[in-house]
Each structure stands twice: as C-alpha cells, then as structure tokens.
Amino acid sequence: MRQLLQTKVVVPLVIVLVAVTLTVSLALRWHADPGGSQPGGARSTDVAADENGSDEAEAGDDGATKLDAWQRPTTSDPKAFAIAYARAIWTYDTSIHSFWDWRDAVSVFADPTDPPEGPRVARSLLPYPEQFEQLQLHDAKASVSDLTADVTSELKAMEKDPRAPTGWHGYLVRGAQTTVMDDRTSTAPREATVAVVCDPDCRFWSASNESPQ
C-alpha cells in the first residue's frame, strides 16, 4: 500500500525529503492549498456513515460495480466521514468488481472541484493495479469491522494550527480487516490517519498509513 501523502503543488526537493511524517505533509498542504479556508464542500450520495457498513454490491448508472461499503456519505460529521473513507479503502471483493471500480469509488471522497490532485491523494492508500491482479488470482475479498476514529494529541494540535483550513479535522482510524484468499480467512488490525474538511459538508483532505507525529 502507498504511504506517501501527496500535496496539490510542487514543492522544493528538500521539503519533499523532509516531509516523511503526516505532520509535515499536512502542514505543506495547508500552506500550499490556494483555497485552504474557502467554503465549498463536495456532495454525493445521501447514505449516512455507520460504524461498520455492508460489503454488498450494486451496479451503478455507469455500469460499474459498487460495494455498499464504498458509499460516500453526505454529512457534516467529520468522524463519520473519516470512518466511511477508511471503510472504502479496506473493503473489496475481487470476484465482482474491477480495480477501476474501486479506484473511482474512492476518488469521489475528494473535492470534485480539485482535479486531479484531490482524487489522486484520496486513492493513494489503495493497492497498485498489479497488486489487485494478484489478489484476483486468489479470489480475494476483505471487509472491515470494529471501526473507531480517535483524535490524538498531535492531531488536536494540528487542528489548532493557524494554517489549517476552516473545518479541518484529523483522526486516527482503526479497524479489524478480515481477508479471504483461496478460502483461507485471516484477520489483521488496520489503521490510517485521515484528515477531512467540513464546511459544513465534509470532504476528504488527506490520509497516510503513518501514525500522527
């Protein structure tokens, strides 16, 4: 899985080399984003985010297969939105959808007025297409349960940073991912640091596999 947090502008190489923690990466995006504190959230489905969700599938209007667990909620609750995003990146079923179905579903968590960087950052924690193909060879599927979202002291400090956009919230999201491969089932803990902006509707801002520092 990709762990690099991407920003929407090019920054000096020395900054890129230093920006290995979520704190620095988020600070760069706060500083660089030209619309940082401006209102204008993204709107999508009317599905409310619950803690665990479902991994049932349905066909979209474009013919793509979409799992229920991928639903992007329209909500002003940042915690619910962060949990919904984590659920989407940790849930898949290679027997019924393509990598591109998954990629497109996760991309819509970002601000639609921020192409291409917003969607690109939103899907940065997904596997590569080649990795998904390997999962397909084993009819792999995964679901996630026991999702929680906590605000650490580091994230609380970042929320108060004057460079943070209005409505910025960060969470350390944890869950238990159950994976089935070749009829073998295993469960492993997962975690990601997820930041969202709600003004008032929430939209994805950034994410990292690294814990906040």
Automatic annotation (TrEMBL):
Residues 48-61 have a biased composition (Acidic residues). The lineage of its organism: Bacteria, Bacillati, Actinomycetota, Actinomycetes, Propionibacteriales. This is Secreted protein. Residues 33-72 are annotated as: Disordered. It comes from the Bacteria.
